[in-house]
Amino acid sequence: MHFAKRIFLFLALNFLVIMMITIVLNIFNIRPYLNAYGINYTELMIFCLLWGMGGAFISLALSRKMAKWMMGVKTVDPHSREPQLRHLVETVHHLAKSAGLPALPEIGIYHSNEVNAFATGPTRSRALVAVSTGLLNRMKPKEIEAVLGHEISHVANGDMVTMTLLQGVVNAFVMFLARVLAYVLSGLGRNRESGSGGGYMSYMIFVYLFEVVFMILGSLVVAAYSRHREFRADAGGARLAGKESMIAALQALQNLQAIKDPHENPAMAAFKISHPSKRGLLRLFASHPPIEERIERLKKSHR
């Protein structure tokens, strides 16, 4: 039920964003792709790309600030003398240099009993790597280093930007296809030719209906890529911190998955290294592959 709630909230958020855009355009009568001669597909595609990509990149630009606000992340002073924090800073800086990052990422800690970590940020030069207090208190130093290596690999691979581009393209095609099919099925073009004023209401109903359907299909594509990037980040963590350390870290995460954060924010769940695995059709919507599969993939690798 908790996983289904995450899916619902994700789809609802995307639907509300697109619906809000549509309503605003209708209020101000901004429909450049609909004219007396029908639908202008070139203008419609440009319009959808601007809105779809624009919203995604605004989210990316605000990702660090939003993560800090939603997760209560406290930034670690890079010059801290506290032993645990000093070790954390030194480990992240060593891994970042080994991964060839152009700038050292910002480091943060959020208070939670869950054993987890995440990375976010608009570019490889402006990233945030954050860990939970549960992870710092429950995992061994080598395991923590491997988890941090996983997150640094996300940054080095440019996963945040790639996910944003993918989500933006999906949003654009959702808007485009929904409007094209709605135009065809609503008979709006025929009504215009005949001089009838009807058809626009049915057009908007079809738009909303197709947006929901295509967003569900689009989320399958985004989730599939998200699972791929987790495998790749595991491999990166193994290169940076050692294969055995990465396997041990994943096994520790698997053993400690039962520790939940009652105040977990669903919007941040896809960014974390550990995510409860699901079975059946729900697995298609999962942002992370099951940890046991990630462990087996690493064991079979040659690095």
Q: What would you note in describing this structure?
A:
The chain has 303 residues and is of the alpha+beta class. It has one domain. The chain contains eleven helices and six strands. A four-stranded mixed beta sheet has the order 3-4-6-5, sandwiched between helices. A two-stranded antiparallel ribbon has the order 1-2. The radius of gyration is 22 Å and the shape is elongated.
Query: How many structurally independent domains?
Result: 1
Poorly predicted ranges: none
Nearest-integer average pLDDT: 81
Question: What is the total tally of β strands?
Answer: 6
Biggest β-sheet, characterized?
Answer: 4 strands, mixed
In N-to-C order, the SSE pattern is HEEHHEHEEEHHHHHHH
**Discrete helix count:** 11
Q: How much of the residues is beta strand, in percent?
A: 5-15%
Structural class: alpha+beta
User: What integer value in Å does the Rg equal?
Assistant: 22 Å
Query: N-to-C terminal Cα separation, in Å?
Result: 38 Å
Oligomer: single chain
| Shape by Cα distribution | elongated
Q: Which strand order do you get reading across the main beta sheet?
A: 3-4-6-5
